[in-house]
Amino acid sequence: MTLGAQDLSLDRGGKRVLCDVSVRLNPGTITAIVGPNGAGKSSLLLALAGLLEPATGRVNLDGRGLQDSPARKKARALGYLPQSAEIAWDVAVETLIALGRLPHRDRGTAAIERAIAALELQEFRKRPASRLSGGERARVLLARVLAGEPQWILADEPLAALDLAHQLNLITHLKACAAQGQGVVIVLHDLALAMNHADRVVVLSKGGLIADGPPADALSESVIKQAWGVNGSWIGEQGARALVI
Ligand SMILES: Nc1ncnc2c1ncn2[C@@H]1O[C@H](COP(=O)(O)OP(=O)(O)OP(=O)(O)O)[C@@H](O)[C@H]1O
């Protein structure tokens, strides 16, 4: 099931925040969206999730405008993790994760157990969500997305609150999701993570798309200079690169 944006422009607070962006995303791969603060990354992800109406252009799911897709199909296809890890309902962790099955209207026990295992949340399952650390809460909210087994995982900075070991664990899991055919789109600030782990990188700057392609091309030193105004150099081998600034 394909997902993409075509000539997409977005307005927020009366201001154009994304201008004429076109991307076709590929199932079975990890795409990282990167760019400076305010570049429009979260806005693009919100639009891909069907949560922000285009000002012009459109988002397509399975070759059809997202606005014209049935709500249930969208809810099953698109699993969105917002940037801030707010939990509105103070229920037990396993109950919260089970909410990810709502679009399927089933108990989905196996999928819930897989999500709990993937994010190593076994010890927290009975705990009220209000009694978790920031990183634990972020993992629970991501587990809720995974429990829904969406065709597309759209996650806004899913690694930001996680420690090193849990970052690695999550990246490994997202790669496994992609290997099984799910599309993974993640907003990242850590360019080395994008360079080393994404199949493709989309670089936004000031609401426009300035690079889109394999990490080594899209995150070239000249693109980094153009987007962030920083002189950076990549060191190390492919798959284990570090950015020196
Ligand atoms: N709810 C909102 N109302 C009005 N303007 C907004 C709103 N949310 C974001 N914006 C503006 O839209 C632009 C793009 O914001 P967005 O959150 O998409 O950027 P971002 O690339 O995700 O940034 P960051 O790296 O800081 O998270 C910014 O100029 C921001 O100030």
Automatic annotation (TrEMBL):
Residues forming coiled coils: none
MF terms in GO: ATP binding; ATP hydrolysis activity
Domain called ABC transporter: residue spans: 3-231
Domain of life: Bacteria
Keywords: ATP-binding, Nucleotide-binding, Translocase, Transport
Database matches in SUPFAM superfamilies: P-loop containing nucleoside triphosphate hydrolases
Entries under Pfam families matching the protein: ABC_tran
Chain's role: Part of the ABC transporter complex HmuTUV involved in hemin import. Responsible for energy coupling to the transport system.
This protein's name: ATP-binding cassette domain-containing protein
